[in-house]
Design a protein that fits this description.
The complex is a heterodimer of chains A (250) and B (247). By secondary structure, chain A is mainly alpha-helical. Chain A is 72% helix and 4% strand. Chain A folds into 2 domains: 12-126 and 224-249, no CATH class; 141-210. Chain A has a two-stranded antiparallel sheet. In chain A, β1 and β2 form a beta hairpin. The longest helix of chain A has 31 residues, at 180-210. Chain A is flat. Chain A starts with 11 loop residues before the first helix and ends with a helix. The chains are: A mainly alpha (250), B alpha/beta (247).
């Protein structure tokens, strides 16, 4: 089941048009991702923190999300300073501690955290339903949006079906171990889940045909862009320009 | 049997159907006509009730025979598209019928497909939800509804298309006592012709004015409804139900 811990709230960012937020998030994260100087990612991280505070994101889930990301970053900190090349600061056993490696690790850390914060504050504050609709308004391919929305609708159900099969296996004293019986049983479980999902998709297609489906999935308009949203778009544009020009003046 | 006065009729003529890989056909030479009636259909599991409904609306293609809607033989998918604008079907599993993320979108899907504008579709969806007693459910997430709520939303998605014939496949499944009562009230108020599959005899008896049984691929009409009163004891007496003998 997909939980959307950040989607509920009534901050300014929650109420803003998701299409504008997605555009802003794309612009800002792209600029941060491709920058090679440290100034832009640092400013991006500050902006991300400000947006997260502005959206009044719940701290618990936010920490969890950042922790997951930074575990990967930790791996980079273990390897990059020793393998980054460039000027050696001090020898560490057979390896050298490299300044270039440390700089790179620092850059990636700022970039990643800034991007995660911006994406969380701007896109996770809309429900997947709203995001789907906004992508439609941004003229993304209709089929992709349909995939997103139906996946969202049916993922939980497919998981339920899988769990039901697992429970029925467990009720007949199935326990996992490293043997052929376990592999075969898991093969059956996955196979049955696939078959059931396929059968279900056929039934859903029939239900859609019964309601006049002819290949085009109409979406009921949810939001429209308001003047306040245009102001927000201007704000994102200004931030983007600032971030892009920062290394020039730093 | 002609039904001239009826504004809308759906007829099966000499239908033969078998599933691929099965020797025994489900139907051979089956005839059926639905005019302005409210028909109840009973039959054992696997007797082909659901198959019959799907043949009627072109979701399954018969090996032989004709489907005639309002005097016209339905031949291709385009014909059936026109038929489906007028014939609504309530599926056995509400989970299959509700494929949109939110309730309002699901109800609006049909009207939008029929070419209504966004405003019209929104309006008719809201009023249909009100009709089935689900006002205020518009923005609820479909997959988080209870079983009974899903069933009623499914009914709303069909009614929003304003069909002149309704086909319902075991609509009382997974409904509790209250849900069943609500569904009964809503269906009693319908003026459409319908074909209702159910194992729930009492439910059929209260709604239908004609009954068919499906047995070994044959439809048997049964016009007589025998009403009898009975008394029975329940465990859990403090939560017992009451029989309404005035009806």
């Amino acid at each position: 089941m997909i939980s959307e811990p950040f989607a509920i709230g009534d901050s300014l960012l929650h109420r803003a048009d998701p299409a504008v937020k997605i555009t802003g998030a794309l612009l800002l994260t792209l600029i941060i991702a491709v920058s090679s100087s440290l100034a832009t990612p640092v400013a991006g991280l500050v902006l991300g923190l400000m947006l997260a505070a502005g959206a009044r994101l719940p701290l618990g889930p936010l920490y969890k999300r950042l922790l997951a990301v930074n575990l990967f970053i930790l791996l980079l900190w273990i390897t990059l300073p020793l393998t980054g090349g460039g000027e050696a600061i001090t020898p560490l056993g057979p390896l050298d501690l490299s300044s270039r490696g440390i700089e790179l690790a620092l850059l990636i850390t700022f970039k990643t955290n800034g991007i995660v914060l911006i994406l969380t504050a701007l896109t996770a504050t809309s429900s997947i339903l709203e995001i789907g609709h906004s992508l439609e308004r941004l003229h993304l391919p209709h089929k992709l949006i349909l995939l997103l929305l139906t996946t969202y609708r049916y993922l939980g159900l497919i998981e339920q079906e899988y769990q039901r099969l697992r429970r029925s296996a467990a009720l007949r004293c199935f326990s996992t171990s490293t043997n052929l019986h376990t592999y075969r049983t898991y093969g059956y479980l996955i196979g049955m889940t696939l078959i059931r999902s396929y059968d279900r998709s056929r039934r859903i297609h029939k239900a859609m045909l019964m309601r006049g489906f002819q290949g085009h999935f109409p979406l009921l308009a949810l939001q429209a862009t308001r003047p306040a949203d245009l102001l927000l778009l201007l704000f994102f544009l200004a931030c983007g320009t600032g971030l892009a020009l920062l290394p020039v003046f730093w | 049997m002609e039904c001239v006065k009826s504004p809308c009729s759906l007829e099966l003529r000499d239908i033969t159907f078998s599933y691929p890989g099965h020797q025994q056909p489900v139907f051979s030479g089956l005839d059926f006509q639905l005019c302005n009636e409210k028909i109840g259909l009973v039959g054992d599991n696997g007797s082909g009730k659901t198959t019959l409904l799907q043949i009627m609306v072109g979701l399954l293609k018969p090996d032989a025979g004709k489907i005639i809607f309002n005097g016209r033989v339905m031949e291709n998918e385009k014909d059936f598209f026109r038929l489906r604008r007028k014939v609504g079907m309530l599926f056995q599993n509400a989970e299959d019928q509700l494929f949109c993320p939110s309730v309002l979108e699901d109800v609006a899907f049909g009207p939008l497909n029929l070419g209504q504008s966004q405003e019209e579709a929104r309006e008719i969806s809201i009023s249909t939800l009100k009709r089935v007693g689900l006002s205020g459910y518009e923005n609820r997430i479909t997959h988080r509804l209870s079983g009974g709520e899903k069933r009623l939303v499914s009914l709303a998605t069909v009614l929003a298309m304003e069909p002149s014939i309704l086909l319902m496949d075991e609509p009382t499944n997974d409904l509790d006592h209250d849900g069943r009562h609500r569904l009964l009230d809503i269906l009693t108020g319908l003026d459409q012709a319908f074909l209702l599959i159910s194992h729930d005899w009492d439910f059929l008896a209260q709604l239908c004015n004609g009954f068919y049984g499906l047995d070994h691929g044959r439809l048997l009409k049964s016009d007589t409804l025998q009403v009898h009163q009975h008394r029975h004891a329940h465990p859990l007496g403090e939560q017992g139900h009451h029989h309404d003998h005035s009806k």
